[in-house]
Amino acid sequence: MGFLDAIPHKHSLQDSSSFLNTTTVIALCLFFALLCACIVIGHLLEEHRWANESITALLLGLCAGVVVLLVSKGRSSKILAFNEDLFFLYLLPPIIFNAGFQVKKKQFFKNFSIILMFGVFGTIISFCLISAGAFLLFKKIGITTLNIEDYLAVGAILSATDSVCTLQVLNQEETPFLYSVVFGEGVVNDATSIVLYNAVQSLDLSNIDALTALKLLGTFLYLFFTSTILGVVAGLLSAYIIKTLYFGRHSTDREVALMMIMAYLSYMLAELLSLSGILTIFFCGIVMSHYTWHNVTESSRITTKHAFATISFIAETFIFLYVGMDALDIDKWRSSKASAGTSVSVSSAFLALVLIGRAAFVFSLSNLLNFFKSADSTKVEFRQQVIF
Q1: Long-range contacts of 194-201 (CB under 8 A, 24+ apart)
Q2: What percent of the chain shows pLDDT beyond 90?
Q3: N or C: which end of the chain has fewer CB within 10 A?
Q4: CB of 210 closer than 8 Å to CB of 218
Q5: 242 and 220 in one domain?
Q6: How far apart are CA 241 and CA 83, in angstroms?
Q7: Which of 81, 103, 124 is the last residue of a domain?
Q8: Contact 199/219 with Cβ under 8 angstroms?
Q9: Can you tell me whether residue 15 is helix, strand or coil?
Q10: CA nearest neighbour of 317 among 102, 83, 24, 37
């Protein structure tokens, strides 16, 4: 998985007496050097308001991909192997947990109705528009091998938003309303898109009736509330254990370790039970920040606050750095049987459909919410709608 793909499990005595061979050590050194460069350059650029670490990581990733591509004479643009397990099991959980742990709870729950509106109904609107648009556009492009289930699956996948980018672009202190709504919508959107995708894969689409719609609604409610309850229970359990056993009088490390492990355990349990791990660990972070954090010692409070933020920051930088490098993955370009024109057409169509689907529900639902709100201070301004 991930780094482990680049580490051979068996070595001959001629290669090396250590677990890591020379090639792997060089690759690790280069990658961590790039991470350090992202942090330093991003900090210098951010002081002048040119860019932040995410933009820097993307650009450095692109540059590193070009260099590796040239050095390897077009054979590869990768420094280390990367797969979905590394992302979903190791990089995503600390990012989402820290977002829940650091989120301003008052602002989040104050805007919870908007979050649910965007996360549920907005995702459904986007899903319908993207699926219908893909069905119409792909026929004109010349792609005829997909069936109705494939188009609906594409709509379910592309209607999902990326919470990781939101954390880098928005600042919680400067724009609390935007941060809470956009990120909260992304978390609820995860549960909705999972339900839609699973429904597309499992339901008989040739026989859709009112009972099928009720089953979809029931599946969503089950996924949302079960995932949330699991995260809340994990957070409350950690608070009870720490308060009852009073770890702080023996070791600050144990308090911090218990919080980290129980948060990660909640995420893995959610994945094991086919729930939304993102929802679970997000609400686990909220509960831990409200209850567990106030039951630990002062030194543990300082440690957890900075440790969670640091781990999340490194994971975010890692992701953006790899995304930049992955854009020049020569193996993926070679494996595609489509022509360059078809690839550009499909990518452009997807981008346009995602933007149209996003704009359709943001502007319509925002204006609908504004219609029922009397106070101007609580309305969603047009400038905020554009940012959404």
Answers
A1: 194/223, 194/276, 195/219, 195/220, 195/223, 196/123, 196/124, 196/127, 196/155, 196/156, 196/159, 197/153, 197/156, 197/157, 200/149, 200/152, 200/153, 200/156, 201/149, 201/153
A2: 11
A3: N
A4: no
A5: yes
A6: 36
A7: 81
A8: yes
A9: coil
A10: 37
117 close to 362: Cβ distance less than 8 angstroms:
no
Is there a single domain that holds both residue 292 and residue 309?
A: yes
Q: Greater confidence, 275 or 247?
A: 275
Out of 21, 54, 81, pick the residue that ends a domain: 81
The 10 Å Cβ neighbour count of residue 255 is: 26
CA dihedral 295, 299, 300, 301 (to 10 degrees): 70
140: containing domain: 84-387
The CATH number that applies at residue 243 is 1.20.1530.20
Overall number of domains in the chain: 2
pLDDT value of position 272: 92
Instruction: List Cβ neighbours of 262 (8 Å cut-off, separation of 6 or more).
Output: 234, 235, 237, 238, 284
Contact assessment for residue 93 and residue 164, using Cβ atoms and an 8 Å cutoff: no
pLDDT winner (highest mean) among 11-20, 209-218, 279-288, 311-320: 279-288
What's at 5, amino acid-wise? D
| Whether residue 222 sits in one domain with residue 358 | yes
Give mean pLDDT, residues 302-330. 84
- Hey, is 1 helix, strand or coil? coil
What's residue 167's pLDDT?
Answer: 56
d(CA 249, CA 255) in angstroms, rounded, equals 10
Phi-psi region of 171 (alpha: psi -120 to 50; beta: other; left: phi over 0): beta
> Is the distance from CB of 325 to CB of 64 less than 8 angstroms?
yes
